[in-house]
Amino acid sequence: MVEIKTNENLAAMREAGRVVARALAAVREAAAPGVPLTELDRAAREVLAEAGAGSPFLDYHPEWAPVPFPAVVCVSVNDAIVHGIPDGTRLAPGDLVSADCGALLGGWAGDAAVSFTVGPARPEDTRLIAAAEKALEAGIAAAVVGNRIGDIAHAIGRVCRAAGYGVPDGFGGHGIGRTMHEDPGVPNEGRPGRGMKLRHGMVLAIEPMLIGGGTDDHYTARDGWTIRTLDGSRASHAEHTVAITDEGPRVLTAL
Predict the structure, then answer these.
(1) d(Cα 123, Cα 100) in Å, to the nearest integer?
(2) CA atoms within 13 A on the CB side of 84
(3) Distance from C-alpha of 239 to C-alpha of 132, rounded to nearest angstrom
(4) 98-120: b (≥16 Cβ within 10 Å) or e
(5) Cβ–Cβ under 8 Å, residues 88 and 41
(6) CA Rg, the chain, in Å?
(7) pLDDT band at 1; cut points 50, 70, 90
């Protein structure tokens, strides 16, 4: 079931989205060579606490996961695509980091992700991150009243494939509102003109994920959460919570 949000609901979701944006900014600022991944989680927790917000990530336990997620932010480094658990691993110069964070505020959720490098970036990492951001922009541009979910999926996939990158099957965006994961699903590839029709008041988390090596193959690490590229190549991830409105797409997790 897809809940259509009122304009008042969208305003409340924007407040949750601002908290997410500030948390991701704090994570990025904390990321430096030698810093443990747990410190990035601590930075995000501080932002949530200051805002009086909860975390939809902390203790989240889907049926496929062996244990509840232990942090408020997913930190995926280098060949990790998504769902990385922030542990004592220390960042190194040149690491490619994807941070994914959510917030619950006033009964509404926000969810976003950003990828960046620690210190000087390799040219191939710069291109990979830029492609993820371009794919996200294309998906957002297609998120207009009267279009369909397939139009968003097609826009994202076209950018990823044109750049020569892989797209991990089975992972993509989702509806969001009172909880982090709601209907409908938003694939990162699809056929235009197919799927649910977009209406004013729908809210979607749009999140392209790219595999640098060009294959789609991935596996779940021994922790039961982290999804890694099978070929060991690096990955990038970009995400925003986006409201579908009669005036056009509205990004609720922009800083």
Answers:
(1) 23
(2) 28
(3) 9
(4) bbbbbbbbeebbbbbbbbbbbee
(5) no
(6) 17
(7) confident
Instruction: Please indicate if the annotation marks 181 as binding a ligand.
Output: yes
What are the CA-CA distances from residue 246 to residues 98, 145, 198 (Å)?
Answer: 32, 6, 10
| pLDDT digit string, tens, across residues 91-108 | 999 999 999 999 999 999
DSSP 104: E
Q: Determine whether 177 is exposed, middle or buried from the number of CB atoms within 10 Å of its CB (0-12, 13-18, 19+).
A: buried
- Whether residue 207 is annotated as binding a ligand: the answer is yes
Contact 201, 4 (CB under 8 A): yes
CB atoms under 10 Å from CB of 181, counted, come to 17
- How far apart CA 173 and CA 182 sit, in angstroms, is 10
For residue 111, say whether it is annotated as part of any ligand binding site.
yes
DSSP string, 151-184: HHHHHHHHHHHHTT-B--TT-EEEE-SSSSSEEE
Distance CA 49, CA 67 (A): 24
By CB neighbour count within 10 A (0-12 exposed, 13-18 middle, 19+ buried), where does 38 fall? middle
Ligand-binding site membership of 174 (annotated) = yes
The tens digit of pLDDT for each residue in 144-161 reads: 999 999 999 999 999 999
State how far the Cα of 254 lies from the Cα of 14, in Å rounded to an integer: 9
- Does the annotation flag 15 for ligand binding? no
pTM: 0.97
